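dude i think i finally got it to work??
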Amino acid sequence: MTWNLRIGLAILVTALAGVACDEGSDGPDGGSERDGGSAMDGGGTTPDSGGTTPDGGSTPDSGTTPDGGETDGGATGCALGETDCSGTCTALASDPANCGVCGLACGAGEVCSAGTCAATCDVGLTDCDGACVDTTSDVANCGGCGDACDTGELCFRGDCDCPTNQELCGTACVDTNSDPANCGGCGDACDTGEVCFAGSCETSCPAARTMCGALCVDTDVDPRNCGACGTSCGTFGRCVDGACTCPEGFMLCDGECRNVRADPDHCGACGTACSAVQVCVRGSCAP
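look at this
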């Protein structure tokens, strides 16, 4: 009796275990299990994988900068009276390809005179292939069109030479009265911190002069230091009583004498800009 009961219980336990296994295969975790196959956290492509990341590809600062095109770079250290136009120093006052403004070319038969396209040159200027120049001072046309001075020479009164009170030191005409590298004579350099005044190295400038770098200058008339050191009157400006003044047809806009008859950024008046498809003609924006 007891033996038969034990056998029966064993059979019952075995049967119940089989039923439990069958239910497990069809239960909530059956089939493709939650962690198996293509699981939610498993294979496939995760939300952060593949593709181009937000920092990939062309970044916002790559390629052409907002200030691209004509820049302030390229040719540097242009001479007084010249402007850097896309890497080339040129005289806006006379260049027929850049007359008054970089990129503004005069028409056929016109000349560039004092920064304005015209039919003829102003009085005192000579037409040299469309550029109105002063042959008494232009080193490329000294005394006549095409008569260029040698390197280091200046054009003075139509002759290639150094002007009065200057002498040729190496390849440059210098004022030995004020040049700290050639003070009193070629090669006579002042010590660090000294300035050259009246041909002598001094520790300070006289009362009527201001020390700007290593030079004693008159800020009342110096166009590179007008009113204060470093204040330039630009290409066309003059310094009168410590203030920059502009020739007729020009206005002082942002510290620079602008040709308001032709400048598309200051057409007719400072700050009056023409659209991208317009040009400035005689102070008015035109298509």
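The helical segments are 2-26.
im so relieved honestly
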